[in-house]
Design brief:
4-stranded antiparallel β-sheet, repeat, alpha+beta, 6 helices, RNA-binding, Nucleotide-bd_a/b_plait_sf
């Protein structure tokens, strides 16, 4: 933790250092929050991402994983055809043509896609339970996973108290060689540090 006198200095530190590489580890820097504030912020962010995704894709493209090696494009289309008009069905393959075990099925309408999710998720095909969900762009999936990760680790890793006046920053994933003094040095470039503590 690093405590700043000036909130603007704390924001500068967050903007400059969050996501930086520190001895091979990506560090996380953010303003310290109470648990209830963190949860509300994460929930709002997740809902915003979810709504953007729903609006952008209109719920027609499905991601299907845990496919058996012998499932090809034709078979994938056949398995999902009962739910509506399929505009495309594709099993992802390696350069030599072997299945990667996942694929995509795109329906004409969101209603058809929703019905397919309900009926096909966890259905056994070739003795393997399928995972079927709306397809997401990589950046949306990363944002969702980051949000879920922060929710899981927030109560375990983040203290709920402030260690001094001003603004506290929470810094996660520091290299073991970083001590209180090195932490203070790194963050002092952004403003007056009232305390720096590696916990």
């Amino acid at each position: 933790m690093a405590s700043f006198e000036d909130p603007e200095a704390a924001e500068k530190a967050v903007e400059a250092l969050n996501g930086n590489d520190n001895a091979g580890k990506i560090i996380y820097v953010r303003c310290d929050q109470k648990e209830i504030e963190r949860q509300a912020e994460l929930k709002e962010k997740f809902q915003r991402i979810r709504m953007e995704r729903i609006n952008r894709y209109q719920g027609v493209n499905l991601y299907v994983k845990n496919l058996a090696d012998n499932i090809d494009d034709v078979r994938l289309r056949k398995e999902f055809a009962q739910f509506g008009t399929i505009t495309s069905a594709k099993v992802m393959t390696t350069e030599d043509g072997r299945s990667k075990g996942f694929g995509f099925v795109c329906f004409r309408s969101p209603e058809e896609a929703a019905k397919a999710i309900v009926e096909m998720n966890e259905k056994l095909i070739e003795a393997r339970p399928l995972y079927v969900a709306l397809a997401q762009k990589k950046q949306d999936r990363k944002a969702q996973l980051a949000s879920q990760y922060m929710q899981r680790t927030s109560s375990r890793d983040m203290p709920e108290h402030r260690i001094g006046p001003g603004v506290n920053l929470f810094i996660k994933n520091l290299d073991k060689s970083i001590d209180d003094e090195k932490l203070r040095e790194e963050f002092s470039q952004f403003g007056t540090i009232t305390s720096a503590k590696v916990v």
